Amino acid sequence: MTRRGLRIRIVLATLVVAAAVAAVISLTLGSARSAPVGAGVVVIETSLGFQDAHAAGTGMVLTSSGAVLTNNHVIRGATDIRVVVPKTGRSFPAKVVGYDESDDVAILQAGGASDLQTVPLGDSETLDPGEPVKALGNAGGTGSLRAASGTVTGLDRDITVGDDQGGSESLTDMIQTSADVQPGDSGGPLMDASGHVVGMDTAASVSNGVAQSTTGTGFAIPINKAMSIAGQIMRGDGSARVHVGGTAFLGVEVVENTMGGSGAVVTSVVPGSPAEAAGLTPGDLITAVGDQVVSSPSELTDIVAAQKPGASVSAAYVDEAGASQTADVALASGPPR
C-alpha cells in the first residue's frame, strides 16, 4: 500500500484546528514541553472586530523584510493583525498579502519590518515515519514560544477538522505526529532533528476541548506544499484557490431564504459599511450581484470575494414590502475569509 493510500478521517468532535484561540487562556503544559527555541518564529495576535473577540496563533518569518507564513484560519475574520517577535518584543502591524482557504495557508507582511531572523527551511519529502520532530508555537496564546517533542506517525493523511465557529474543512496530505500540539500553535514550525522546518502545525485531536498527549495527536502541512502556495501568493499569482490582496467587503450578515426561493436574506448590516451606504436593511432578499444570480448565502460570499476592494457592483434585492430594488455598491476592504 502506498503512503497516499492510507487515509484517515477525524470527526469534528475529536479534532479541532489548533490555532486561533478566542482569548489568552491559562494552560498547564505537558511534560513534553521544553524551553523556548527556534529562530524566525513569531506570535500572531488578531482582533476580530465583527465578533468582539481576539485570537492568537503563530507564524514563520520567510524574509528579513517581514513576509510571514501562517495558517489561513489564524487570520480568518481578522480586522487587525499584529506580528510580535517574542525574543525582542518588537511588534509590527501586518496586512494580508494573500491566502488559500482550501489548503489553510496565508502570507502576511509585517509593516516596517527589517533585519528579521528567518526560519531554516527543510525538505518535507525526506520525512519518514518514526523520525523525531518538534512542534514550536504560541501554545495557549500566552505570547511565548514552547516546544513539544514527538515523532512522525503518519504521512499523506487526509483529515476533516472543526473550527471555533462550528464549521469544518478538509485538509489533505498532512503529516501526522505524536507532538503535543496545542491551541495557539497553528502556523508554527514542525522541525526535524536538525532544526529545519518540515511542516506547519495546523491541527490536533482533542477530547472535551483539551488536546490529547497521545500518539497521533498533531497534524502539520508539509512545508514543501506550504511554500509552493506561499510562492504563488508572493508572486501575486491569484487563482480559483489562491486569493491575492485585500478581501472585498459588502457588510451584511445573511441566511438562507426560508420562503422556499433562492437568494440570501439580510439579517444585519454593519454600520458604516457599503451595504448601509447603499440602503440595504435587515429583511432584504439579495437576488443578484452584478450579472451573477445569488442562490444562497455561500454563493453571495463567493461572488463578493471574487471582486476587488473598491470595485463598484450593482446589487439586486427584494425589500420587505416585496418591491424589487437595485443599488450601486462600492465594495470596501474587509476581513480575510
Written account of the structure:
- With 337 residues, this protein is mainly β.
- The chain has four helices and 24 strands.
- The protein has helices spanning 72-75, 223-234, 274-278, 297-305; strands at 15-17, 33-34, 41-48, 53-61, 67-70, 80-84, 91-100, 105-110, 132-137, 146-162, 168-177, 189-191, 197-207, 210-211, 218-222, 242-244, 247-249, 252-256, 264-269, 285-289, 292-293, 312-318, 324-330, 332-334.
- The strands form four sheets. Strands 9-10-11-15-13-12 form a six-stranded antiparallel beta barrel. Strands 3-4-5-8-7-6 form a six-stranded antiparallel β-barrel.
- The longest helix has 12 residues, at 223-234.
- The model is unreliable at 1-36 and 208-216 (pLDDT under 50).
Question: Topology, pairings included?
Answer:
Layout: E1 15-17, E2 33-34, E3 41-48, E4 53-61, E5 67-70, H1 72-75, E6 80-84, E7 91-100, E8 105-110, E9 132-137, E10 146-162, E11 168-177, E12 189-191, E13 197-207, E14 210-211, E15 218-222, H2 223-234, E16 242-244, E17 247-249, E18 252-256, E19 264-269, H3 274-278, E20 285-289, E21 292-293, H4 297-305, E22 312-318, E23 324-330, E24 332-334
Antiparallel strand pairs: 1-13, 2-10, 3-4, 3-6, 4-5, 5-8, 6-7, 7-8, 7-16, 9-10, 9-12, 10-11, 11-15, 12-13, 13-14, 13-15, 17-24, 18-19, 19-20, 20-21, 20-22, 22-23
